[in-house]
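pasting input
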Amino acid sequence: MTGNSAMVAGENAARAFAHHEEGDGPPPREDVRAAAMRPVLTRDRWWWPTVGVLGAVVVLGIVAWAVQLADGLGVAGYSDNAFWAVYEADLVAFIGVSYGGAVVSAILRLTRADWRAPLTRIAEATALVTLPVGMLFIVPHLGSPQRIWELMWPPYWNLSSPILWDFFAVSTYLLATTVFFYLPLIPDTLIARGRLGVVADSRHARMCRLLYRVLGGRWAGTGPQRRTLRGATGLVAIMVIPMAVSVHSVLSFAFASSSRAGYAETIFPVYFVVAALYSGVALVLLTLAAARRLYHLEVFIKREHFVRLGFLMVALGAAYLYLTFTEYLVDGYSGTIGNAAWVRQVVIGRYWIPFWFYVVAAGVVPLVLMAIRRTRNVAGVVVASGLVVVAMWVKRLVIIIPPATEPLVRSSLTTGAWGTYHFTWVPISITLAATAAIPLLLLVLFRFVPILPMAEMEELEEMAERPAAGLVVADALLPTSVAAANGGVARDGDGNGAPASRGAVEGGQR
Amino acid sequence: MRRGSGTLRVRTSARALALAGVGLLATVGLLAGQSATAWAASARATGSQAHLTLVARPGPGHVTDVVLAASFSAAGTGQGARPGDRGVEVQFAVHVPEFSGSPLLTVGTATTNAAGVATLTYRPTWAGRQDFVASALGPDGTVLASSGTSITVTSAVRSDAPLTESARPDGVIGRAAAGTLLAILVCLWIVLVGVVVRVHLAGHQVGKEVARQP
């Protein structure tokens, strides 16, 4: 028996096992399963070099943090005249981008948007890895990490502190995000165990098997189990949306409940939530584009997905631009010393470059790219998303640094001059490390977890193919529908063809 | 011309002298008035014997209030020597130990009543020992007499504490809000963990049924 024939026999055995274990679920789709498990079963040549480079950047960030621990926050450019700066901006920006994935997935689930299926796993994974990275920024931001445990120890709780409520809110949201990622994964663990039968008994395969056994429990895919899972996922989806809104509202209270001009803004809770969703959707789009390219998912993740999410992104961007205008207009118009001073500094003063960069890069250009038909494609949306992610981080700096550097003590002993924050290599390295940690964690995660929600895609396909039961037929986004229309060749949104291999497997297994 | 001029000068000088005389009289009058007041003050101060006794006691109203009562008396024969003749301004101050040298911070002024007592109710902003100083001031601001006293404050209200009920957790509204939010938080955790458990229990039951099948 040759290696290939042994492999085919193994695959058939595994499929038979998997289908036997799946109970009364929808018919399997071989193309979906193959694409979803490909990152788990095979490791591309670029994987180790990419992980190595990203890991090196993360290590550089850890070294920078060690230097900061040894020499103090001064090496990060902090001073009495600039007491909050890049770490707080990182904290807000990274936690903010994590909301996009979970909320987009939750909204699409609750609205029963059947085109969501190929996106949800990647979106939820993005939220899952970004949130802990964002939470970690509290460590360099505090400067004295040995005190962090006091946040978790009730005798030390200071309920008057917004920081404590931040901790409560973000940790609760982390639990919700984890559960939201985990629940749809349960049926996939069974399918994945079956597919692992085709690979050699490597250490990686053994680890995956153990992981799937633990995560899947006694899942058998029966009707009652599916109903329970569907209800649970729906409940968590409902919970995730208000939690995301409340979490970033609470994060804004760290600023809004202060008495410093530029921070004490009643608009901040809404402002922060919209900013989080805006940058979060942009990050999801970037992640989708990267996964689509690296894992060859063009058949499943199409131009239409990017365009639809792109419209959602620019709608949020327009709302954020409007809120920015409102905030600056009101503060500048009121003419109070503190507010007028920081508005002037931001709009035409020393911070005009980052502020107007935000306006152009995150306010105007994405709108233009989505408005013009020629640029309303994957490349255009990716460019817009990249600009949004970067410019929204810059906007967080503009929110945080100017008010923190405004002099409040005016006496003969002080000059009354504004403080200055200077970037140093330390915060730059730590920020880059966090940025690199996101793709690094995603690469590692998808070495163990199917990148597409196989069970969910098959279930949605089954529902779409049951017009007699009165169900709404899904639009033509799912590849098999396109494949049928194109004579067995599924075409992605860019017109690239790929063979649809579903039928050969499906018939025999049912 | 010269005469004329001289005449003019003479006349001018006469007018100037007249005006100067009036001015002198006015000035003398003013000085006389002032000196009368000053005399009264000096009678208190230099009659030697101006005394001030400061007493601090807990206030009858708010539990954190301190009543500062300064009794002024002056032995002498001049006007103003008797307490009831005219109110004397008393300035009350507290030592601020947070700053180097523990400088005096004026907390208010009061005027003596007919009994010679000036009273000020003060709400301390920090707990602990507080050293007060009262100074009786003359009309020109000179210190006629001073006195000091100490009191240990066991409960104080921060200067930035709101007068009305706060939404912070140290107020009733705040305590209720914080308690409600913590309860919601606990419910969220229970629901999230419960959802996972429920899904697993569903699988567990199915697993048992499958195991029972031959």
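fyi Residues 1-22, 468-510 of chain A have pLDDT under 50 and may be disordered.
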